[in-house]
Design brief:
Blueprint lengths: L10 H10 L14 E4 L17 H7 L3 E3 L2 H6 L6 E4 L8 H5 L25 H16 L12 H7 L3 H25 L7 E3 L7 E8 H6 L3 H4 L3 E2 L37 E7 L5 E3 L12 E3 L7 E3 L8 E3 L20 E3 L10 E4 L4 E4 L8 H11 L7
Helix pairs in contact: 5-7, 6-7
């Protein structure tokens, strides 16, 4: 057990538990994770936001960790030592801003050293994951290892209805899986490594057609603007794969490895939406100046969120489907897939039932739905950690 709390917002306690373990649990010999990468530098910098005001960079270093604070240092750090990599305060910047709209990395005062600079040399999920695999393999090749790599900002961007930034991070996850499989093959351990890819929830998201954004922006009223949406036979192809400037050889192409759009701001886009959302404006265009803020609060005394006009000036108003104290979209009951490759991959699909003959889990012939608890039970069974009784 690496951390345990009834409130996941207790970040200082979680960081301390990563380093020192859970003090009231004695059944596990905890010496800290081999690899810990991410944001949240305010929990490590000594001061009001760190646990008991302590300098966790220093405390981790005192326990033998290499401490890195940018992508350049991450690439150069050796693979034979435990490594702490913290690359910004708060959440890490998303793929779209790191790779396309880089001006959004400026003016954030989010450098991980606490000196109020800008975190501009930030690794992506792929860089962090591949480096983590290198370190874990170097340190635990014989006994094996477990790694969890999370594309957390897909969810964060979906909450704020920022579908372009969510897409960028989703494609980054796809690219990370490909790079991870290639790294495992390079290390000669792909066939003996179980790889699971899944999510803990969905957002009720879907696409209903296409949008002519040039037509939408030219219209004067909300009802006329909605005429820019084409459905069924009036729905054409989007233009995300067509470079905005044919002479621009730096345009993103499919040849990068993952299918990142070549043009993030085409005329014809997708009519995307979630089923549960606050009042907001929608113009179906990428927000070049930074992540979306769909609703704003009108009251200092209570939460009362209304449309943020500045979020999509050329768009039209979309009435919310949530109580007015909700500033963002919420999770949904939509099923999420589970992808598995490697040893025991057959345990992560279909409907599971209890086998009295094997005192374990078996895959039944029926195809059905199972939950996240089953995933952990089957991971334990695959790794030989499951209890026999």
């Amino acid at each position: 057990m690496t951390a345990h709390t009834a409130d996941r917002g207790q970040y200082p306690h979680v960081v301390d538990a990563f380093l020192n373990g859970i003090t009231n649990y004695t059944w596990t010999n905890w010496t800290g994770p081999d690899v810990l990468f991410g944001g949240g530098a305010e929990q490590f910098i000594p001061g009001k936001t760190s646990y008991k005001g302590q300098d966790y960079y220093k405390l981790f270093a005192n326990k033998g960790y290499n401490v890195v604070q940018n992508n350049t240092a991450l690439s150069a750090t050796p693979n034979n030592a435990k490594t702490l990599g913290i690359f910004s305060t708060s959440n890490l910047p998303v793929w779209l801003d790191r790779n396309v709209y880089k001006q959004n990395l400026l003016g954030k005062s989010n450098s991980p050293d606490g000196k109020k600079g800008n975190a501009t040399d930030v690794p992506g999920l792929k860089e962090m994951t591949v480096k983590a695999i290198d370190i874990l393999n170097a340190r635990h090749q014989m006994e094996g290892w477990i790694l969890m790599s999370e594309a957390a900002s897909i969810d964060k961007q979906m909450h704020t209805l920022d579908y372009d930034r969510a897409l960028g991070d989703l494609l980054e996850l796809d690219d990370t899986v490909k790079a991870s499989m290639a790294k495992l093959k390079e290390l000669g351990c792909q066939r003996e490594t179980l790889v699971l890819v899944t999510a803990d929830h969905g957002h009720g998201f879907d696409v209903a057609g296409s949008v002519d954004t040039k037509y939408l922006n030219a219209q004067g009223g909300d009802r006329k603007k909605r005429g820019a949406i084409g459905t069924y036979k009036e729905s054409g192809l989007s233009q995300y794969v067509i470079p905005g400037n044919p002479q621009d050889t730096s345009s993103l192409q499919y040849s990068q490895g993952a299918a990142f759009p070549a043009n993030w701001d085409p005329r014809y886009t997708l009519a995307s939406a979630v089923g549960a959302n606050p009042d907001h404006r929608e113009n179906y265009q990428v927000h070049k100046s930074g992540p979306r803020l769909p609703a704003v609060n009108t009251s200092a005394a209570e939460d009362n969120y209304i449309v943020n006009y500045k979020d999509a000036v050329t768009g039209f108003v979309v009435n919310g489907t949530l109580p007015v104290n909700n500033a963002q979209g919420v999770h949904s009951l939509t099923d999420v897939p589970v992808f598995a490759q490697g040893p025991c991959q057959e345990m992560f699909g279909g409907e599971f039932g209890r086998s009295t003959k094997t005192n374990g889990w078996k895959l039944t012939a029926a195809t059905g739905v199972y939950n996240n608890i089953d995933i952990f039970f089957n991971m334990a069974a695959c790794l030989g950690l499951a209890r026999s009784k």
